[in-house]
Amino acid sequence: MCPQLFINYKLKSVAYLPWKRFCYRALNTFIDDLFSFIIRMPAMHRLSCFRDDLVFFVYLYQRWIYPEDKSRLFDEDPQEDEELDKAKKEVEMEKIAGKGKAKETKKDK
């Protein structure tokens, strides 16, 4: 979880931490804390769960202090990937259709 903190700090933006992923990590942190109190486990594991809480609070602070740069594309947003793929295919089809028309007009002459 710590590399994301450094990425956000370096970019001064939280654009690479979308809400879906952020909610997933919040839920994961909550479940870890819950099980660290319910299940018998070594003390070091309990401390590591609380370390994750500290990192999570730093995430919250970064969400509050850094703006979300909406001009950046997310690396792992499948919906945007599909839209980009469709746009690329449309451009390629237009190029192919344009070349075909150009060839036909040359043959007709």
Question: Descriptors for this entry?
Answer:
109 residues; mainly alpha
Task: Give an overview in words.
This protein is mostly helical and 109 residues long. It folds into two domains: 1-73; 77-109. Helix content is 77%, strand content 0%. It is built from four helices and no strands. It has helices spanning 2-11, 19-38, 43-65, 78-108. The longest helix is centred in the C-terminal third of the chain and has 31 residues, at 78-108. The radius of gyration is 24 Å and the shape is elongated.
Shape: elongated
Spans where pLDDT lies below 50 across 5 or more residues: none
Number of strands: 0
Q: Please give the share of residues in helix.
A: over 70%
Terminal CA distance: 65 Å
Number of helices: 4
Backbone structural class:
mainly alpha
Order of helices and strands: HHHH
Count the domains: 2
Gyration radius over CA: 24 Å
**Binned strand content:** under 5%
Largest sheet: none
Q: Mean of the pLDDT scores? A: 76
